[in-house]
Write a structure and sequence with these properties.
single chain; alpha/beta; four-stranded parallel beta sheet; 12 strands; about 15% strand
C-alpha cells in the first residue's frame, strides 16, 4: 500500500515537472489532484469504481453526478432517489458498520465533514480506505461538489450538466429578488433546546438568496443553541421550521404557545419545510430555496 502511494506521488510530480496536464475535460488524463473540504490533497490514479457514501445527501449528489451505479454502500436513511434504497447500508454518522464496509471493498469513501465524526473518518483511513471529505456551506458548493464527484467517478459530462442546471436555476432566483427589502428570518432546527442555523450553515445562504436576513447570522457556529431570551429579542418576522407542524404544536414542545408575542407567530408566518429538502446538501436543496423565496415574496406582496 505504501509503495503504491510513493509511486503515485512520484508519477504526479513527474507529470507536473514535465508540464503535462493532471486533468482534462474529457476525464481521460491521470493522475488527478484534488483537495477535499478538509484541505487534504487527494491523488487519484484511476476513476472510482466502487463508492461508499456516508450521508444521504452525498448519496443524492453521487446519483445526480451520474455515478449512482458505482455506489456499493450508503449510509442509513439514504432514500432518494428510489434506487438508493436497494444499496447495502453501512450504518450512520454515529455508528458505522466497519465489517460490512470493508467487505464491500470500496476504492473511494465520500464523507460529510460536519456530519461524520473526525474519529470515524480517521478510523477509516487507518484501515487503508481512501476517504474524500465534503462540505457545502453555500448553495454554490452544490455544483462544485457535483463536478468534483464527476471527476472522481469519471462521469464529468453528466455532473457538469447537473451543475450547470443548478447554477442557472439559482441565478434566476437571485435575479428575481435583487430589489427586495430584507425580512428577518429565524430557522428552527430543534425546539428544546432551541437550535438554529448560524453563519456557517447552508441555510444562512438560502435565507440571503431569498431576500431575508438570518436573525442569528452573527453566530459563527454551524448550529448554535440559543436561549428563549435570544429569540424574543430577535423577534423575527418569519420562522421556517424543519420540524413538522404537528410536532411543533404538540404538548411535548409547544413552540407556538411558548412564543405567542413573536412577530412571526402573531402574524402566522411560521412555515414547515421538509428536513430532507432544507438540510440535505444536495441538488434538492434548490426546492427548499424556492419554497423559502415564495414565502418571503408573498410577504413583500402584502
Amino acid at each position: 500500500m505504501r509503495i503504491n502511494w510513493i509511486l503515485l506521488t512520484a508519477l504526479f510530480i513527474f507529470a507536473s515537472l514535465a508540464g503535462l496536464p493532471s486533468y482534462a475535460q474529457d476525464g481521460k488524463v491521470l493522475p488527478l489532484r484534488l483537495v477535499d473540504d478538509q484541505g487534504h490533497v487527494f491523488l487519484l490514479a484511476h476513476r472510482a469504481k466502487r463508492i461508499i457514501s456516508l450521508s444521504p445527501a452525498i448519496t443524492e449528489l453521487v446519483f445526480a453526478a451520474g455515478a449512482g451505479e458505482k455506489l456499493v454502500g450508503v449510509s442509513r436513511f439514504s432514500d432518494y432517489p428510489a434506487a438508493a434504497r436497494s444499496i447495502p447500508s453501512v450504518g450512520d454518522a454515529f455508528s458505522l458498520d466497519l465489517e460490512r464496509l470493508l467487505m464491500l471493498e470500496p476504492d473511494l469513501v465520500i464523507a460529510w465533514r460536519s456530519g461524520n465524526t473526525k474519529l470515524g473518518i480517521d478510523q477509516l483511513e487507518r484501515l487503508g480506505l481512501r476517504v474524500f471529505v465534503t462540505e457545502a456551506t453555500q448553495l454554490a458548493d452544490i455544483p462544485r461538489l457535483l463536478r468534483t464527484i464527476g471527476k472522481l467517478a469519471g462521469t464529468l459530462p453528466v455532473a457538469e450538466s447537473a451543475a450547470q442546471n443548478f447554477e442557472m436555476a439559482l441565478q434566476r432566483l437571485k435575479q428575481q429578488r435583487a430589489t427586495h427589502e430584507p425580512v428577518s428570518v429565524f430557522q428552527l432546527i430543534w425546539p428544546q433546546p432551541l437550535i438554529t442555523a448560524g453563519a456557517a450553515h447552508i441555510i444562512n445562504d438560502i435565507i440571503n438568496v431569498c431576500g431575508g436576513t438570518n436573525s442569528f447570522a452573527s453566530l459563527p457556529d454551524l448550529m448554535p443553541i440559543i436561549s428563549e431570551e435570544n429569540l424574543l429579542a430577535a423577534n423575527p418576522a418569519v420562522i421556517f421550521s424543519s420540524i413538522s407542524d404537528e410536532l411543533l404544536a404538540s404538548n411535548t414542545y409547544g413552540f407556538v404557545q411558548r412564543f405567542p408575542h413573536i412577530s412571526a407567530v402573531k402574524s402566522g408566518h411560521v412555515y414547515f419545510i421538509h428536513p430532507d429538502l432544507i438540510h440535505r446538501q444536495s441538488p434538492r436543496i434548490l426546492e427548499a430555496t424556492r419554497l423559502v423565496c415564495a414565502r418571503l415574496d408573498a410577504m413583500h406582496a402584502q
